[in-house]
Amino acid sequence: MVVKINENYLKLKSSYLFVEVARRESEFVKNNPEADVIKMGIGDVTKPLVPAVIEAFKDAVDEMGNAETFMGYGPEQGYDFLAEAIIKNDYEKYGISLETSEVFISDGAKCDTGNIQEIFGIDNKIAVTDPVYTVYVDTNVMAGRTGEMEDGMYDGLTYLKCNAENGFVPALPEEDVDIIYLCYPNNPTGTTLNKDQLKVFIDYAKENKAIILFDAAYEAFINEDNVPHSIYEIEGAKEVAIEFKSFSKTAGFTGTRCAYTVVPKELIGYDSEGNEVEINPLWNRRQTTKFNGVSYPVQRAAEATYSEEGKKQIKEIVDYYMANAKVIRESLTDLGLEVYGGVSSPYIWVKAPNNMDSWAFFDLLLNEANVIGTPGSGFGPSGEGYLRLTAFNTLENTKEAMDRISKLDI
Ligand SMILES: *Cc1c(COP(=O)(O)O)cnc(C)c1O
User: Fold this and answer.
1) Which domains are present in the chain?
2) pTM over 0.70
3) Burial class of 39 by CB neighbour count within 10 A (0 to 12, 13 to 18, 19+)
4) Which residues line ligand 1 (CB under 6 A)?
5) pLDDT tens by residue, 131-141
6) 13-28: per-residue pLDDT in tens?
7) Dihedral angle at the C-alpha atoms of 368, 372, 377, 382, nearest 10 degrees?
């Protein structure tokens, strides 16, 4: 006998994208040591936690040092004080009612969107958008729901193309699928779905007894009236959708770690005999068995994002990033480039001019403007010919980068 590995891991392609971006950047810097390179590929926030959050965070740390207020193991699903604040501020505001037992607090939307597939059968047919946040794909590869990768796509997965031709609105899958991952506002394209466009997917899920896994990590950046802040704003969505949200991009928690997942009681799946089974207890069982909750001070810090000051301070930061997004969008549009996203998202998706491919456009911007983006082809075959720029740099750098690009002959 020998130990056998999970061979599904061998199907995974190395994350070539960011490694290759870093390699080309360091080679450029080596050859041009005096160049001032501006990074517009940053997929992380850059502003620190706001004062209201820091204050609550510190107070909670002090509580941990006092025998009377010390907190040990908490509920795996998170403390009620945070679940209640989430329901009140992120849902009741939009006319959605939830119970605290439908909100599962966690240490990240990456973990939750990656782990959720465990509670679903191995023979479900999965659909993702193309381009895509790779976590959805890779976790299904690891679980064994796919074959090998060919031409940038895994055998057995359904890819829903999003490109300029369809206005970045994916068409419904042509074959029957059971689980559809959607991320809106979208990473990487920065585009959104309005309520009617999202309702098409809800209707599909109802008709086909399918489930939608809805990643709303960028909800805080929404600036358009008809774009839903929660999938549950659409009638009937509670019966067919799980929603993921995160404090990471909203409130700068990328290094602090707090997120949540909503699994409504109405949501059902089916056993092999076709009997209805509630999904909420399955996720509850998964979390209570494999996860031990988010630390108490972090949950208090997350709660503070909903205080009056917290909300105001966070909005200022979101507005700062979105002002950068506007600068990028408008400067590149003025240059005659095709630009998408950046209205309700910190991501701007730029079509490379003159039929250049993603890497050629990346090299042009790096060599001629000393600006770094992220090649769209790294997010899937439909990303070819696009480049992602982000609004997470400073306003000064963003303006400087746009100035330099404006001087290029493109
Ligand atoms: C950043 C991001 C998240 C958030 O992940 P955390 O683990 O909560 O930091 C989730 N989904 C997408 C698409 C993201 O880009």
Assistant:
1) 7-48+309-406 (3.90.1150.10), 54-306 (3.40.640.10)
2) yes
3) middle
4) 108-110, 133, 183, 187, 215, 217, 246, 248-249, 254, 259
5) 999 999 999 99
6) 877 888 999 999 999 9
7) -90
